[in-house]
Amino acid sequence: MTNESNDLTHALNEWLAQFVTDRRRALIDQVLAMRTRHFTVVLENIFQPHNASAVLRSCDIFGVQDVHIVEDVYEYTVNPEVAMGASQWLTIHRYGEPEPLPYPGMRGTKAQAAERKALPGSTKSCLAQLKKDGYTVVATSLRPGAVSLYDLPIDKPLALCFGTEETGLSEEAHDAADMFMTIPMFGFTQSFNISVSAALTLQTLTHELRKSDVAWKIPADQKAEIMTNWYIHSTRRGRALARQFYRDRKLPIPQKFEEPEEPEVDEA
Prior knowledge:
Layout: H1 3-17, H2 22-33, E1 39-44, H3 49-61, E2 66-70, H4 80-83, E3 91-95, H5 110-117, H6 123-132, E4 136-140, E5 147-148, E6 158-162, H7 171-176, E7 179-182, H8 194-211, H9 220-233, H10 238-248
Helix pairs in contact: 1-9, 2-9, 3-8
């Protein structure tokens, strides 16, 4: 972000802040101070909305800002009853344009999923971008050579990848991973529900991260952009207020704030 853009973002935040209660502003500052991008989560083709939504909720709770959703096989739709509004506080990146895939009940069929996974997907592009951004790609896996969750090094940024309920991560994800990670299990059952797996992983790693000397907090310029979104979600007609800010300064309105169907702010 350039200095000029950064100044404009701060000015926009000051404008939006006047429409937010003191209590909400204090909460935003408190939560943002504990947010991190040192860890990020990748969800690959999760077909049960309540599972993926539960992961989003865990990301918000444990302070992980970014979630990358690959939907080559299944399109993800937020389950509001499970996510509890978490998606509006996260930065969600989506990859892939899945075609409709009918499936019986909630379980789906392995055959249909296998056919879908044979198509060119976006897992590779997602993980390649994360590596370019400096992340070590970690595949949750039971494969030989997997590192225990409790031994996973956290000194470098990690992209934690979780796969679909039936078959786990794809071969493409395994091939692109820099390392495998497993959660130790001591019972007859050798797998967790994906939402449980993600919650255990995030709780363990963020707890260790906050005790460490790693510089895990989000830089100030990135915080400002996140704060804009949070103010908008905390304000009645937030995007209309943002458009008013740009109109008053005779500046072009960014596309992300354009919502013609939203009632405009009274000019008075």
